[in-house]
Write a structure and sequence with these properties.
The chain is of the alpha+beta class and about 450 residues long. It has helices at about 1-15, 20-55, 70-105, 125-130, 145-155, 195-245, 250-280, 290-300, 305-310, 330-345, 380-385, 400-410; strands spanning about 110-115, 120, 160-165, 170-185, 185-195, 290, 315-320, 325, 355-360, 365-375, 415-425, 430-440. It has a 5-stranded antiparallel β-sheet with strand order 2-1-5-4-3.
């Protein structure tokens, strides 16, 4: 229309009209004004739309009717986009509130902070555990425990540690673990803290009860016959005094036999106490980097003759062969010797005896050594007792080998576990077969 009007303007000039070109010129000016207004409206709508997105102001709406079809479609598109943003924002807000409530009300203490100690967030469990209303910096906890502050400031992500805090009227046994992540180029440390005092006390009580049961059983085995024999001797001596006659040869032999028995049981009790004392004197490990293959080769050489004599199929597999570990090889050799001796003992009645020593990296990348046999296994009710000091199923066993092994593995920051396959027999009884001991470093 503007082009046609301009053409008409020049056409009227050729006709030497005066009023008509002036009126056409006014029309041209009005049309140009309408074009600028149209563009300005578009730009203002675009600007308003982009500001809504920039400042997350999703309450605006754009008029759809009465502005022309192109404006109607544009404004409708703007409204649709803003509604979608509003929906996403609402969902994120709901999700944020959900996680906020979850973090704040979970019974595990959670704190997030930066490397300089600035605290971003603490949940209710943290405030309740340390009896504080707010904490803005890690160093605010100095009044409670400088050691805790030092641990949090120097915390290494992915690691866990235990810490004991003595308060005026309470003791906190804390299990601390956490991770580190980045948000907007800001490094955030998230630490979870759990008070495991009651759990440790329960486990400690249970361990003491198990140990006391074993100790009292062993002591009673020695004390009962000694008490019985001394009572018999007392009766014999009183009888001899009443008769006022020297004891005969047979009576003297009985007394000598009783004294020998008392001496034997007393020596056995002394040996038991001495063994218990040795159980608490494990030397401090002398750690070094060593190849697992070299350790296992030494063990195989040590048992070579016995394995050959008993026709045991002894297999060693290491994958990869270059596996190394950080350990005291002498102590670990002692653990492996105990396990292989147990395996040989379990294979006494096996038709095809086999021992498999297997080394590999587990799914967490930790060095793992397994000692596997196909002999008589360990029943489930016995399995949870085998690491208790002095508990043994062998007639001549001391019951300290596996307990020592567990302590040695704990000194290495590792663990030792045992499992057996259970076979259900037709009569309803369970039969264990094959045992696997696993050392994890």
């Amino acid at each position: 229309m503007l082009t046609a009007t301009i053409f008409l303007f020049f056409y009227t000039l050729t006709l030497e009209y005066f009023i008509t070109p002036f009126l056409v010129a006014l029309i041209i000016i009005f049309q140009v004004y309408l074009i600028f207004k149209y563009l300005d409206k578009t730009n203002r709508d675009l600007s308003s739309f982009l500001e809504s997105i920039r400042f997350s102001e999703f309450t605006r709406s754009f008029k759809i009717e009465g502005m022309g079809s192109s404006f109607d479609e544009l404004n409708k598109a703007f409204n649709d986009v803003i509604q979608d943003f509003q929906k996403v924002r609402s969902e994120k807000e709901e999700q944020y509130q959900y996680f906020q409530n979850l973090v704040r009300n979970i019974d595990v203490s959670i704190i997030t902070y930066q490397r300089d100690g600035t605290v971003d967030m603490v949940n209710n469990a943290f405030k309740k555990l340390f009896q504080i209303n707010s904490v803005k910096n890690i160093h605010d906890l100095n009044s409670m425990s400088p050691k805790l502050v030092d641990t949090l400031i120097k915390f290494e992500p992915g690691k866990s540690c235990l810490m004991k805090i003595q308060e005026e009227d309470d003791i906190l046994q804390l299990a601390i673990s956490g991770t580190e992540f980045k948000i907007l180029n800001k490094s955030i440390i998230l630490v979870t803290i759990k008070n495991i005092q009651s759990v440790l006390e329960d486990q400690e009580t249970e361990s003491w009860q198990k140990l006391i049961r074993v100790l009292t059983h062993e002591i009673m085995n020695s004390i009962t016959p000694i008490s019985s024999i001394t009572s018999t001797l007392d009766l014999m001596l009183k009888d001899a005094q009443n008769r006022k006659t020297p004891p005969d040869k047979e009576s003297i032999e009985e007394v000598q036999m009783a004294i020998k028995t008392i001496n034997k049981r007393s020596n056995g009790l002394l040996h038991f106490v001495d063994t218990y004392r040795n159980l608490t004197k494990i030397p401090t490990p002398n750690f070094k980097i060593a190849k697992v293959k070299e350790v296992l080769d030494d063990i195989k050489l040590l048992f070579h003759e016995e394995i050959k004599a008993k026709n045991i199929d002894y297999v060693v597999s290491i994958e990869p062969e270059s596996i190394e570990f950080h350990a005291d090889t002498k102590l670990i050799e002692q653990v492996l010797i105990n396990l292989i001796k147990n395996a040989i003992h379990a294979l006494e009645n096996s038709e095809i005896p086999m021992i498999h020593v297997k080394t590999y990296y587990n799914k967490r990348g930790r060095v793992t050594i397994q000692v596997i046999d196909n002999g008589q296994g360990i029943l489930k009710e016995v399995l949870d007792k085998i690491f208790i000091p002095f508990f043994t199923t062998k007639p001549k066993g001391s019951g300290i080998g596996l307990s020592l092994s567990k302590q040695i593995m704990r000194l290495h920051g590792g663990s030792i576990t045992a499992k057996s396959e259970i076979e259900n027999l037709p009569d309803g009884q369970d039969k264990a077969k094959g045992t696997t001991f696993t050392l994890t470093f």
